[in-house]
Design brief:
892 residues; 76% helix; 0% strand; globular
Length: 892
Amino acid sequence: MRLAIIVAALVVSLGLSFAAGGYLAPAFLREGWFSWGSNSPQATGNAASAVLSYSGSPIPPSSSSTPGDLPSILKETNSYRLLKDLTIYAEGIPAADMPKEVEKVQSLTQNGNQYQALEILVGRWVELDPKAALAAAQKTQNHTMGDALVSDVFSSLASRDPSKALSEAQQLPESPKRDAAVQNVITQIAVNDPVNAMALAQQLPEGSKRDAAIQRVINQMAQNDPANAMALAQKLPEGQRRDAAILTVINQTAQSDPEKALSLTQQLPEGQTRQSALSNVLGQMAQTEPEKALSQAQQMPAGQLREQALSNVINQMAQKDPAQALALSQSMKSSVGRNSVFNIFNQWAEKDVNAATQAALQLPDQQQRSNAIQAIMNGLVQRDQKSALDWLNQIPAGKIRLQAEQNYVGNLASTDPKAGADYLAGLPNGQEKNNMVQNVAVQWAQNDVQGALAWTEKLPPSQSRSFALQQVASIWAQNDPKAAANYLTGLPEGQDKNYMIRNVASQWAQNDAQGALAWAQNLPGAQEKKNALTQIAGSWAQNDPQAATAYVASLPAGGMKNEIIGTMAAQMAGTDINAALDLVNKYTSGRAKENALQNISYQWAQSDPKAAMAYGESLPGAQARNNFLRSVSSQWFNNDPASAVEWLKNLPDDAGKNQIIEGAAFQWAQSDLTSAMNYVGSMPAGQAQNNLINAVTNQLAEQDPSKALQWANQLPDGEGKTNAVATVVNQWASNDPAGAAGYVQSMAQGPARDQAMQSVANSWANNDPAAAAQWVATFADGSSKDNAYANIARSWANSDVTQASDWLTQLPANSSKDAAIVSFSSQVFEEDPQAAYQWAESVSDPNRRQQEVYMLLSRWVRSDPTSATAIVQQSTLPDAQKAQLLQQTNKN
């Protein structure tokens, strides 16, 4: 799957470079000059006077000017030297040896460098002998490889004889290879004859293939003639395709001439397309005229696009003056200021890491401090791991440091996974460590599956170990699915094995659907077989839908066939909606058909929501119809809210309309906040109105909490208002918990105040559980305090188990402490079931203690019956409950 993504993403750029007579490597590499600059980032300022000091060192030059054998080249960690050595290696291979070299790359242990080697070799092959490369592409069983070869070959042919290339491409059998070939030929024709290329693109069948070809033509034309490209785009029928084409022209123009792009944008009529274009143009303008871009952005109407434009401007300012960008971001009340922090400090650290660190540690908001520290670490660790570790060791202990350590360990694992694993051994248990365990396992498996597997298997039983094993098995299956499948046969039955079977089946089917199918059909368990076959069919449908359809037609009727059809239909709908509908209508009925149509609806709504809506309205059965329309409308409101609102107004006011509003509320508020706010007032009280109120409040609170609070308070009393106030307060608390706490305590007694206090406590606990606990301690005894303590315990257990334990120990025995213990023990169970059990036994209320102990021991019996047996026997549970649990251990 990973190879498919990488090759697909590079098809266009590869094709265009082949057409020009070259391939992947840049010209300066092929011409052989190479030198290191002397201006690598260094720390500035007086280390003695700084809060923290750092001194980096440049990466040393390569010790050799000639590459070695391919496995040695692929071990290179510096991307520049890797590209240089791979290019030299590829240029030394004659055309006749290319098939053997490609097979060699595919047989090596997979890592990120292997994919780059494959791309360069394919490019060189097309340059040397396009006919041989095309013949190999048509014969290969590796669909990803074949598609890439065909695409590149036809780009090269089109540069010599476009008409002949198009004729030959259209004679290929219907398949992804043909689609890629036709699109690349049309793109090449557009270089010299964009009008003809557009006519050819518009002759393609309706659907995503035609849309992609039109986008390529307009993008090519916009590079040299933006005015005519705009005129061509505006002649397209109204809708998403036309809007996308207009945006393509303006975005392309903005890269070279932001003023001209701004002029083109201002000529567009008011609406979503104009605002999207303006946001992108201002991002480009901010590189040279940040003040002008900021002024233009501030004049945009409130909404997501204004926020995006302001964010683009701040990010560009950060490249020149990060301190000024930070001051601007901190002066803004909206989410833009908060969300810009990471990029600002990433830029700042490259210029002056000491100044950036001092500024980061002085930020008043803990989440922003965390983001800033993450940004600094992200840059440091990529430049110099030793200096990054020295810097990291000076960060105060706590959640922020743990999060920074995730970046450090992730980078370390990519070059020395064993060192990363050793570093993990000294860290306290918690969610951050769990994430790092999975990261190390994944990075290790990229180069050494057996080493990663051996380390992962030695980890203590936990959720993080399970996830890590699943990732290792998935990576193993990319390179050697048979070996990975054989490993699974020795695993005990359970959820972990089922997940790994799905992963192996999906990876295997990418390049050998028949082999994966033969393996899956011999799996012993019915559920295992069903899971594997469903994954295989989904992958198969992407590469060879006709063969996959023939296979599913041969299956006996039943649940497995229905589930496989649903998965296949979702995959096919992205490229051929009619084929997907034919599959569902021919082979399913009843509930299975409804489920499969739901899978199709999401993809269809992306390309043609009006057609999808028309189809949905024709469906029999109110529930099936409403579910389909709800799914489509959700995507429609996200992509084109103005048209979706007009359609919504024409619907009858019934339960179906309410369901659609409930499903689309979030996307509506995010895409067109003003119309969503206005529509709230026209709705009757009820769940649909409450959902839209909640969506509007969330979006408005992200931009301006004070305005959101003002809007929420003017709503009529009821559930919608109560939830809205709580939402705003929760957002306020994420930036200023003390201020939010003061506000809610001034509110009148009632449900709105109670819910708002819970929101503040929960949000505060996520960022600073100690401060949250100190505030909640002032609450009156009761359910509000109990719930708040439970949330604090859960959040604290994720960030620092030791500190959370110390806090629990000093609490007085009462219902609030019991609630905190129950939450804490449940949270730490996966990593330390023994400690979780001991805490559960400390609950003061006898009935609640018995309930919690029984629940934890039930979990323990299911996950590890052997070690759980002794604990069950010594527990304080009644004999009858002990007997029940011991009986379960015998079954497991």
